[in-house]
Automatic annotation (TrEMBL):
It comes from the Eukaryota. Residues 72-222 form the Protein kinase domain. InterPro entries: Kinase-like_dom_sf, Plant_Ser_Thr_Prot_Kinase, Prot_kinase_dom, Protein_kinase_ATP_BS, Ser-Thr/Tyr_kinase_cat_dom. This is non-specific serine/threonine protein kinase. SUPFAM superfamilies: Protein kinase-like (PK-like). Residues 18-47 are annotated as: Disordered. Gene3D superfamilies: Phosphorylase Kinase, domain 1, Transferase(Phosphotransferase) domain 1.
Length: 222
Protein backbone atom coordinates (compact mmCIF):
# COMPACT_ATOMS: atom_id res chain seq x y z
CA UNK A 1 0.00 0.00 0.00
CA UNK A 2 1.25 3.47 -0.79
CA UNK A 3 -0.03 5.34 2.24
CA UNK A 4 2.51 6.03 4.96
CA UNK A 5 0.81 6.43 8.34
CA UNK A 6 2.16 8.57 11.16
CA UNK A 7 1.72 7.70 14.82
CA UNK A 8 0.55 11.29 15.32
CA UNK A 9 -2.19 11.05 12.71
CA UNK A 10 -5.46 12.85 13.28
CA UNK A 11 -8.59 12.40 11.20
CA UNK A 12 -12.19 13.34 10.83
CA UNK A 13 -14.47 10.42 11.77
CA UNK A 14 -17.77 10.26 9.85
CA UNK A 15 -20.92 10.20 11.94
CA UNK A 16 -22.57 7.51 9.85
CA UNK A 17 -21.90 3.98 8.69
CA UNK A 18 -24.21 3.72 5.67
CA UNK A 19 -23.02 3.39 2.11
CA UNK A 20 -24.91 6.53 1.10
CA UNK A 21 -22.13 9.01 1.89
CA UNK A 22 -23.54 12.52 1.69
CA UNK A 23 -20.22 14.18 1.07
CA UNK A 24 -20.87 15.96 -2.22
CA UNK A 25 -23.26 18.86 -2.48
CA UNK A 26 -25.91 19.13 -5.16
CA UNK A 27 -23.71 21.40 -7.24
CA UNK A 28 -20.83 18.93 -7.18
CA UNK A 29 -18.67 20.87 -4.72
CA UNK A 30 -16.88 19.22 -1.81
CA UNK A 31 -18.42 19.49 1.65
CA UNK A 32 -16.00 21.30 3.94
CA UNK A 33 -14.38 19.48 6.87
CA UNK A 34 -13.34 21.26 10.05
CA UNK A 35 -9.82 19.95 10.61
CA UNK A 36 -9.51 21.82 13.90
CA UNK A 37 -11.93 19.38 15.58
CA UNK A 38 -10.18 16.13 14.68
CA UNK A 39 -9.81 13.67 17.57
CA UNK A 40 -6.44 12.06 18.21
CA UNK A 41 -6.15 8.48 17.01
CA UNK A 42 -4.87 5.94 19.57
CA UNK A 43 -1.78 3.75 19.12
CA UNK A 44 -1.56 0.93 16.59
CA UNK A 45 -4.15 -1.79 17.32
CA UNK A 46 -3.06 -5.31 18.23
CA UNK A 47 -6.31 -7.16 17.57
CA UNK A 48 -9.56 -7.03 15.60
CA UNK A 49 -11.32 -5.85 18.74
CA UNK A 50 -9.27 -2.67 18.70
CA UNK A 51 -10.25 -2.06 15.07
CA UNK A 52 -13.92 -2.27 16.00
CA UNK A 53 -13.36 0.03 18.94
CA UNK A 54 -11.76 2.87 17.00
CA UNK A 55 -12.75 2.49 13.34
CA UNK A 56 -16.19 3.09 11.87
CA UNK A 57 -16.17 -0.05 9.72
CA UNK A 58 -18.24 -3.14 8.99
CA UNK A 59 -16.69 -6.50 9.88
CA UNK A 60 -17.55 -8.94 7.07
CA UNK A 61 -17.31 -12.71 7.24
CA UNK A 62 -15.24 -14.49 4.62
CA UNK A 63 -18.35 -16.40 3.55
CA UNK A 64 -20.25 -13.15 2.92
CA UNK A 65 -17.49 -11.74 0.71
CA UNK A 66 -17.07 -15.05 -1.07
CA UNK A 67 -20.79 -14.98 -1.85
CA UNK A 68 -20.78 -11.28 -2.78
CA UNK A 69 -18.02 -11.84 -5.37
CA UNK A 70 -19.54 -15.07 -6.71
CA UNK A 71 -16.83 -17.24 -5.17
CA UNK A 72 -14.05 -14.88 -6.31
CA UNK A 73 -14.56 -16.03 -9.87
CA UNK A 74 -12.29 -14.62 -12.61
CA UNK A 75 -15.22 -12.79 -14.23
CA UNK A 76 -15.50 -10.62 -11.10
CA UNK A 77 -11.87 -9.42 -11.22
CA UNK A 78 -11.52 -5.66 -11.77
CA UNK A 79 -7.87 -5.20 -10.80
CA UNK A 80 -4.68 -6.97 -9.76
CA UNK A 81 -1.37 -6.02 -8.21
CA UNK A 82 1.45 -7.14 -5.97
CA UNK A 83 -0.86 -6.85 -2.95
CA UNK A 84 -3.50 -9.20 -4.36
CA UNK A 85 -6.66 -9.07 -6.45
CA UNK A 86 -9.67 -6.73 -6.50
CA UNK A 87 -13.12 -8.16 -7.22
CA UNK A 88 -16.48 -6.60 -7.93
CA UNK A 89 -19.10 -7.61 -5.38
CA UNK A 90 -22.67 -6.83 -4.38
CA UNK A 91 -23.98 -6.22 -0.87
CA UNK A 92 -27.33 -5.14 0.56
CA UNK A 93 -27.47 -1.37 1.03
CA UNK A 94 -28.91 -1.61 4.56
CA UNK A 95 -27.75 -4.92 6.06
CA UNK A 96 -24.42 -5.21 4.19
CA UNK A 97 -25.22 -8.90 3.61
CA UNK A 98 -24.16 -10.46 0.31
CA UNK A 99 -26.60 -9.69 -2.50
CA UNK A 100 -27.27 -11.19 -5.90
CA UNK A 101 -25.33 -9.71 -8.85
CA UNK A 102 -27.14 -6.70 -10.23
CA UNK A 103 -28.93 -5.97 -6.94
CA UNK A 104 -27.96 -3.98 -3.87
CA UNK A 105 -24.82 -1.85 -3.91
CA UNK A 106 -21.65 -2.56 -5.88
CA UNK A 107 -18.41 -2.65 -3.88
CA UNK A 108 -14.75 -3.37 -4.62
CA UNK A 109 -13.36 -6.27 -2.58
CA UNK A 110 -9.58 -6.36 -2.27
CA UNK A 111 -8.23 -9.80 -1.31
CA UNK A 112 -4.65 -9.69 -0.07
CA UNK A 113 -2.22 -12.43 -1.02
CA UNK A 114 -1.20 -14.73 1.81
CA UNK A 115 2.46 -14.16 0.89
CA UNK A 116 2.10 -10.37 0.92
CA UNK A 117 5.05 -8.58 2.49
CA UNK A 118 2.66 -6.56 4.62
CA UNK A 119 2.67 -7.90 8.18
CA UNK A 120 -0.44 -8.53 10.24
CA UNK A 121 0.23 -5.67 12.64
CA UNK A 122 0.77 -3.24 9.76
CA UNK A 123 -2.47 -4.43 8.15
CA UNK A 124 -4.41 -3.84 11.36
CA UNK A 125 -2.98 -0.34 11.67
CA UNK A 126 -3.84 0.45 8.06
CA UNK A 127 -7.45 -0.69 8.45
CA UNK A 128 -7.89 1.34 11.61
CA UNK A 129 -6.47 4.54 10.16
CA UNK A 130 -8.25 4.29 6.81
CA UNK A 131 -11.48 3.60 8.68
CA UNK A 132 -11.22 6.99 10.35
CA UNK A 133 -9.99 9.11 7.44
CA UNK A 134 -12.90 10.77 5.67
CA UNK A 135 -12.81 13.19 2.78
CA UNK A 136 -14.81 13.50 -0.46
CA UNK A 137 -11.62 12.94 -2.48
CA UNK A 138 -10.50 9.77 -0.69
CA UNK A 139 -11.99 6.41 -1.59
CA UNK A 140 -14.09 5.19 1.33
CA UNK A 141 -13.21 2.01 3.16
CA UNK A 142 -16.54 0.32 3.94
CA UNK A 143 -15.26 -2.65 5.92
CA UNK A 144 -12.84 -5.53 6.22
CA UNK A 145 -12.56 -9.28 6.79
CA UNK A 146 -10.06 -10.79 9.20
CA UNK A 147 -10.74 -14.51 9.41
CA UNK A 148 -8.08 -17.21 9.80
CA UNK A 149 -5.45 -16.43 7.14
CA UNK A 150 -7.85 -14.31 5.08
CA UNK A 151 -7.42 -10.52 4.97
CA UNK A 152 -9.77 -8.52 2.77
CA UNK A 153 -10.80 -4.88 2.43
CA UNK A 154 -14.14 -3.63 1.09
CA UNK A 155 -14.20 -0.23 -0.64
CA UNK A 156 -16.84 1.87 -2.34
CA UNK A 157 -16.95 1.11 -6.06
CA UNK A 158 -15.95 3.82 -8.54
CA UNK A 159 -17.83 3.01 -11.78
CA UNK A 160 -15.69 5.04 -14.19
CA UNK A 161 -12.48 3.26 -13.27
CA UNK A 162 -9.03 4.79 -13.04
CA UNK A 163 -7.64 7.89 -14.69
CA UNK A 164 -5.01 5.63 -16.28
CA UNK A 165 -7.71 3.86 -18.31
CA UNK A 166 -9.03 7.17 -19.63
CA UNK A 167 -5.59 8.51 -20.55
CA UNK A 168 -3.64 5.59 -21.95
CA UNK A 169 -6.00 2.90 -23.19
CA UNK A 170 -7.08 3.20 -26.78
CA UNK A 171 -10.08 1.57 -28.37
CA UNK A 172 -12.90 2.00 -30.82
CA UNK A 173 -14.82 4.31 -28.49
CA UNK A 174 -11.88 6.25 -27.03
CA UNK A 175 -12.56 9.93 -26.39
CA UNK A 176 -10.03 12.42 -24.98
CA UNK A 177 -10.87 13.97 -21.62
CA UNK A 178 -12.46 17.39 -21.82
CA UNK A 179 -10.59 20.32 -20.30
CA UNK A 180 -13.37 20.69 -17.75
CA UNK A 181 -12.84 17.12 -16.57
CA UNK A 182 -9.06 17.54 -16.58
CA UNK A 183 -9.35 20.53 -14.26
CA UNK A 184 -11.83 18.65 -12.08
CA UNK A 185 -9.41 15.73 -11.77
CA UNK A 186 -6.51 18.04 -10.92
CA UNK A 187 -8.40 19.94 -8.23
CA UNK A 188 -9.90 16.77 -6.73
CA UNK A 189 -6.54 15.03 -6.47
CA UNK A 190 -4.96 18.14 -4.96
CA UNK A 191 -7.70 18.41 -2.33
CA UNK A 192 -7.28 14.75 -1.37
CA UNK A 193 -3.50 15.12 -1.04
CA UNK A 194 -3.85 18.34 0.97
CA UNK A 195 -6.17 16.61 3.43
CA UNK A 196 -3.75 13.70 3.88
CA UNK A 197 -0.85 16.07 4.47
CA UNK A 198 -2.90 17.97 7.05
CA UNK A 199 -3.43 14.69 8.91
CA UNK A 200 0.28 13.72 8.73
CA UNK A 201 -0.25 11.01 6.10
CA UNK A 202 2.10 10.64 3.13
CA UNK A 203 0.60 9.17 -0.05
CA UNK A 204 3.65 7.46 -1.52
CA UNK A 205 2.18 5.99 -4.70
CA UNK A 206 0.55 8.92 -6.48
CA UNK A 207 -0.12 7.81 -10.06
CA UNK A 208 -2.95 7.70 -12.58
CA UNK A 209 -3.92 4.11 -11.75
CA UNK A 210 -4.60 5.21 -8.16
CA UNK A 211 -6.93 8.05 -9.16
CA UNK A 212 -10.50 6.79 -9.51
CA UNK A 213 -13.53 8.51 -11.00
CA UNK A 214 -17.28 8.37 -10.64
CA UNK A 215 -19.89 10.70 -12.10
CA UNK A 216 -19.00 13.66 -9.85
CA UNK A 217 -15.74 12.93 -8.01
CA UNK A 218 -12.08 12.06 -8.37
CA UNK A 219 -10.70 10.08 -5.43
CA UNK A 220 -7.32 8.79 -4.27
CA UNK A 221 -6.96 5.10 -3.53
CA UNK A 222 -4.24 2.49 -3.14
Amino acid sequence: MGICLSARIKAEIPSHTGLDSKHVSSDGNDVSIDLSKRPSVPPTPRSEGEILQFANLKSFSFFDLKTATRNFRPESVIGEGGFGTVYMGWIDEHTYAAAKPGTGVVVAVKRLKAESCQGHREWLAEVKYLGQLYHPNLVRLVGYCLEDEHRLLVYEFMPRGSLENHLFRRGLYFQPLSWHLRMKVSFGAAKGLAFLHETKVIFRDFKTSNLLLDSVRIVLED
